[in-house]
Amino acid sequence: MLARDGRAGYTELARATGWSEATAKRRLRQLRGSGALTIQLDYSPRLLGYRAEARLWMAVRPSELLHVAGTLAGHPEISFASVITGPTNLLATAICRDNADLYRYLTERVSALDAVQTLETAPVLRTVKRTGALPPQAYGRPA
Fold it and tell me: In the structure, what pLDDT confidence band is assigned to residue 143 with cuts at 50, 70 and 90?
């Protein structure tokens, strides 16, 4: 039910599961508390005035990888950061007001991280899908 409508209330969840509202509320609280269920907000940064988005692929000294990843994750410009494998070992998404703001961010904040050995930047021209997965029936397959 939540995969179809993340805004479903306890009444709808109870009806979909055959449980009482109290049981649905308690189960939802357990799922959230255990980390099995998280709530994500999907929005278009452009609607909030952020017009420059870029993917950043970085090669970072392995001994400093977690430190750099944590530092980037704390930057308000970074909406996503992940340790990866391959020619680069850190991937991030930066969202800035405009290209000048993105340039300043890259040349002043990212470049100040000495452990970053290489940086490849690719602007995002158009986003087709952000987070989340559609339920199987949305693809014409049974659940």
Answer: very low
